[in-house]
Amino acid sequence: MSMSSPMSPPEHFLDHARLSIANQVSLSLGISVQAALDGIDFGKKGCDLTIAVPRFRLKEKPATLVQKLVSEFQADDYVESVDGDGIFVHYRCHTTNLIRSSLDTIFKLSQPTETHPHGSYGTNESGKGRKVVIEFSSPNIAKPFHAGHLRSTIIGTFLSNLFEANGWQVVRLN
Q1: Is-catalytic flag, 68?
Q2: pLDDT one-digit tens code per residue, 108-167
Q3: Is residue 146 flagged as an active site residue?
Q4: How far, rounded to the nearest angstrom, does the alpha carbon of residue 78 sit from its chain's CA centroid?
Q5: What is the DSSP letter of 143?
Q6: Is 128 an active-site residue?
Q7: pLDDT given for residue 109 in this prediction
């Protein structure tokens, strides 16, 4: 199956699954791959991805289109089954492949690199170029140190690490 599409190349398993579904829907209904991609939502009721067929505004009755999609469906490495439910088409991803792909991605992103010595899994650049000041745990030296100070230190350190993982420049005031 060709995976060509006007969108950028998929990076994650669900992107591959969405593109696989979009290609099949495009061929079955005669709509563009991009229109099919826009019509795919995350599923409800125990399925992974869902399409509300009336969204495509085609002339045929939605129930007929649902039957057509279900009958022409071909399982692949990403999507294992499909069910028609009124005007909805529910797709289930290949669970084993989804788990394997997710674990492979986590392992790959957890490996140290020059720019990310602890790996890049769980990080992003949403705060790049922004600065935040985190002030925490300034114990009074005239009073005994207690658990409240430790709690404040732990929370402050956690927040600082969280902001840094998201690209922020963090100034820690202790």
Answers
A1: no
A2: 988 998 988 888 888 888 888 999 999 877 667 777 777 777 888 888 899 999 998 888
A3: yes
A4: 15
A5: S
A6: no
A7: 87
Q: What is the pLDDT of residues 153-166, one digit of tens each?
A: 888 899 999 998 88
Q: Report the C-alpha gap between 89 and 54 in whole angstroms.
A: 11
E-strand ranges in 72-174 read 79-85, 88-93, 131-135, 169-173
Q: What is the CA radius of gyration of the chain?
A: 24
The proportion of the chain whose per-residue pLDDT surpasses 90, expressed as a percent, equals: 47
Cβ-defined contacts of 71-78 (< 8 Å, 24+): 72/24, 72/27, 72/28, 73/24, 74/1, 74/24, 76/1, 76/20, 77/16, 78/13, 78/16, 78/17, 78/20
For residue 101, pLDDT beyond 70: yes
Mean pLDDT of the chain: 86
Closest to 25 in 3D by CA, of 15, 13, 39: 39
Catalytic residue among 44, 45, 59, 146: 146
Active site residue: 44, 45, 59, 143, which one? 143
Sign of CA dihedral 65, 70, 71, 75: positive
